[in-house]
């Protein structure tokens, strides 16, 4: 049974559990520090780095302001190039469309290019329920799948695993799903990569259907783009007879000229490389070259909800580089699983509530999974102001009644402050009783969560109004 984040606990409970895993903390710390160090060097090479970030943010905002037009333009171009476009309002509809497309081919095993959107919608589980085995081909995604695990990073899903753990997974699981790991396999990276290459090569050569995501959709020509480091994407995109690409509607860019900006940013910010080793593009179908049938499934699944949020819509600029995770002190200590989603770290703390809403304890807890240090703001290639969105979402949580006792208490205080006589009486009582109150108090029931982490501030012997009246005369 494919694992999922469904029913994951709220961030505080999940984080408390993950922080206790010393090996996980060490794995995450080592990996994130390595990646962010390489990123800093390569970003500094570009004197126009900040100008590129400004351009990328402006392009994304242009698309979001005119998204319907750009998507319809892309649909027209894909259709003209021999592809078929499908529209999915939510995860259930997207999964139904893809499942029916695969069933129509008669195949029961397919290969996949790593796609966060298919993980977001739970596609693997939906296919499994229909008797279809979907095999991941990205190295890190393969590790996660073989280990019956869940992704913890948007670029390196198995970032929380070290080499020894990966070797054990390969030895234990590869033989159950195809070609087994070589005898005497060690945890040497070259040996692990070769074992994965041999195991996956059988999948590539045998699969008739491939499912991909896309980093970008160029509306100008209906071209899709996948950026990757291993070549597995190229294999999936060219060898299968049927290609199904599942793409979020926000991945659209207007033109190839606009795409150039993002390709200069993505690899440097994501993995600390000047250029991604493989950038694959495809437009519809071509006789005698690549898949004979191409389907594009455009997925909403909460994106129009996020688009309607004046502050939060900037999260849809995200190009999934993962830099915000690599610099986040909270992510470094909890890892990705604590966020309960395929989107962890700072982007997960804002994107998940925007896509799903704040009426669930799990998503409502995520805006608080931050120190508000702003490190994520500084590294984002599309200028997302994470701290602004986090604060706005926290206000929405409070206004939405997620803490009814606190809201009632503040409402009572507001009522007293609105009446001058009542407020003066309350202030006088407080100044009189202040010296008698202990600095630490424990309130009963739900109020205990408030007092457990706070000390009572010292109450002055005289109020400001009292001091002003005594020193400056009467005041109203």
UniProtKB/TrEMBL annotation:
Q: Which InterPro entries match?
A: 4Fe4S_Fe-S-bd, 4Fe4S_Fe_S_CS, FTHF_cligase-like_sf, Helical_ferredxn, LUD_dom, LutB/LldF, LutB_C, NagB/RpiA_transferase-like
The keyword 4Fe-4S is assigned to this record: yes
Q: Name one GO biological process term.
A: lactate metabolic process
UniProt-recorded Gene Ontology molecular function terms = 4 iron, 4 sulfur cluster binding; metal ion binding
Question: One short Pfam family name for this protein?
Answer: LUD_dom
Q: Keywords in UniProt for this one?
A: 4Fe-4S, Electron transport, Iron, Iron-sulfur, Metal-binding, Repeat, Transport
Stretches assigned to the 4Fe-4S ferredoxin-type domain:
308-338
Asked if the Swiss-Prot or TrEMBL record annotates the protein with the keyword tRNA-binding, the reply is no
Which positions carry the signal peptide feature in this UniProt record?
none
Q: Which PANTHER family match?
A: LACTATE UTILIZATION PROTEIN B
Could you tell me what this protein is called?
A: Putative iron-sulfur protein
Q: Which organism is it from?
A: Kitasatospora cheerisanensis KCTC 2395
